[in-house]
Amino acid sequence: MLPWKTIIKLQRAQGRPVFLQLADAIIREIKSGLIKPGTKMPGTRVMAGLLKLNRQTVVKSFDELYSQGWLVSSKSKGTFVSEELPEIHPAKISTEDNRLQLVSKAGFEFERNEFIHDFAKPEREIQGFHDGPDVRLIPTEIMGRNYKSILQRKRGLLLLSYIDVIGTEQVRQSVSGYLNESRGLRTEADNILMTRGTQMAMYLLAQVLLKKGDRIITTSISFRYADLTFMQAGAELLRVPVDDEGMDVDEIAKICSRKKIRAVYVNSHHHYPTTVTLSAGRRMKLLQLAEKYNFVVIEDDYDYEFHYDSSPILPLASADRTGMVIYIGSFSKTLAPGIRIGYVAAPPDLVNELGKLRQIIDAQGDAVMEQVVANMINDGEIRRHMKKGLKIYKERRDFMVSTLRAELSDVIQFHTPEGGLAIWAKFDKRIPVPELSIQLRKKELILSKGLLHDLTAGKKLNSTRIGFGWMNIQEAGKAIGILKSTIRKME
Questions:
Q1: What is the Cβ-side half-sphere exposure of residue 347, based on CA atoms within 13 angstroms?
Q2: How do beta strands 215-219 and 71-74 pair?
Q3: pLDDT over threshold 60, residue 272
């Protein structure tokens, strides 16, 4: 008889019922080859005694194995492992519990991506200078009422089934109206594709617009995840400088005179990561160059609503007359990062093509939440939320700016951002940002190492984004105090 007490390991504190744990263990050993096809199993009473289990637990476990076809019963002979199973080379019996460990490495070869870095934990449960909105400001009560109202209606329940891959017409119409009113665009529902944030929008666009060897222009300091998306599609990235007026459009003109360019990726409103705005003159010239050299402008307006000292400058897409600008954005900054609702505003023929691709990677978005956001647009709740939020975020920005300048102006240099939720800060070379980040993490405070922005500078930027939106003023004051004491110890 096999040493059942040795090979069957059960964890009674585990949430999975014991009879299923027993069945799982027997199946595992059959698969390993230790229990061979045709092996006679102990009777349920004997097995219960060996494993110190209630007999009914063993009966239920065997019944499960019968139903799955692993065991067969003979009235006169007993219970056997099915002969229909293939013969497997038996594994050695071990007194250690190694067979219960998860496989830690694939048993097959696969191509590893060499330029996309490993993903990291967001660590948003730890306080810090996080880049993004404060989720505590979300109008959860309003959103909850909308969600409940939608699901209480028969028509609303249809949203839990399959919908149009590009989004329902009602939602797209609401988003279209919102963009037309707030950003000066001229769109209809057919111009809108709903996505799960701007990253999905960029991925779809890269797959549809770019092929291996195509050239796309971006800035020398750029949004790393956009760059990786274009590189994954096989594109060659060409970089131009960025200064206080945004990306250098004159340099784009020089490149276009020498090389065929497929697209330009731009944050016209708040460049990421530096927060600068593309000047009016450069905007006009970029549109002229797009028409002259026939390249696509991918305008990523990731935080248009966050502008504090004046009215936001209208997007490039609002002045596009030839269909060369694709406008992408999301409500993930407006409301919360976890609300993955974005959009592409583009000519209908491109929207249709993007929809064809989306259906094979994500059949549809979160239709109910999209309708919640659409209702909030139609009811004016998004506008009211942003009006309230902008006042709070401006106070937080002003506090962060004034305190950093008062306490750390000798080692941190920055311009007051006109919008967005972060400060682009340049640190004195005596304070390496990666090392500072490590020291702060030991004190339960998060500051980005800034390495994602070091694209062509050979890791010599020594800059990072200091988020001010995530923390209230009291929290920010405490965080700056920790930042200051840590920096002074490093000097």
A1: 10
A2: unpaired
A3: yes
* The one-letter amino acid at 86: P
Nearby residues of 204 by Cβ (< 8 Å), 6 or more positions away: 193, 195, 344, 354, 357, 358
Task: Say how many C-beta atoms besides its own lie within 10 A of residue 418's C-beta.
Answer: 18
Pick the closest to residue 329 from 219, 430, 214, 200 (CA basis).
200
What strands, in cross-sheet order, belong to the sheet with 412-413? 412-413, 422-427, 463-467
For residue 52, give both structure tokens. Answer: 């110190």
pLDDT digits (tens, 9 = 90+) for 58-84: 999 999 999 999 999 988 889 999 988
Gyration radius from the chain CA atoms: 29
Bridge partners, 464 (sequence order): 425
Structure confidence by residue, pLDDT tens digits, 343-358: 999 999 999 999 999 9
pLDDT of residue 63: 94
Catalogue the E-assigned strands of 160-293. 192-195, 215-219, 236-240, 242-243, 246-247, 263-266
> Rounded to whole angstroms, how far apart are CA atoms 70 and 30?
8
Q: How big is the chain, counted in residues?
A: 491
pLDDT in tens, 277-336: 999 999 999 999 999 999 999 999 998 989 998 777 899 999 999 999 999 999 999 999
Read off the pLDDT of residues 360-379 as tens digits, 9 standing for 90 and up.
Answer: 999 899 999 999 999 999 99
Rounded CA-CA distance 188/179 in Å is 10
Query: How far does Cα 57 stand from its chain's mean position?
Result: 44
pLDDT at 86 (0 to 100): 66
d(C-alpha 490, C-alpha 254), whole Å: 44
pTM over 0.70: yes
Q: Does domain 138-379 have CATH number 3.40.640.10?
A: yes
d(CA 324, CA 183): 17
246 backbone dihedrals φ, ψ, rounded to 5°: 95, -160
DSSP E strands in 325-429: the ranges are 325-330, 342-345, 412-413, 422-427
Binned at pLDDT 50, 70 and 90, residue 101 comes out as: low
Under CATH, domain 384-490 is a member of which superfamily? Aspartate Aminotransferase, domain 1 (3.90.1150.10)
Q: Summarize pLDDT for 32-53 with one digit per residue, the tens.
A: 888 888 999 999 999 999 999 9
Q: How many angstroms separate the CA atoms of 329 and 310, rounded? A: 20
Q: So where are the chain's domains?
A: 4-100, 138-379, 384-490
Strands 296-300 and 325-330 come out as parallel
Contacts of 359 (CB under 8 A, 6+ apart): 165
As given in the structure block, the two tokens for residue 6 are 């040795």
CATH number, domain 4-100: 1.10.10.10
Tokens 């519990």 appear where? 97
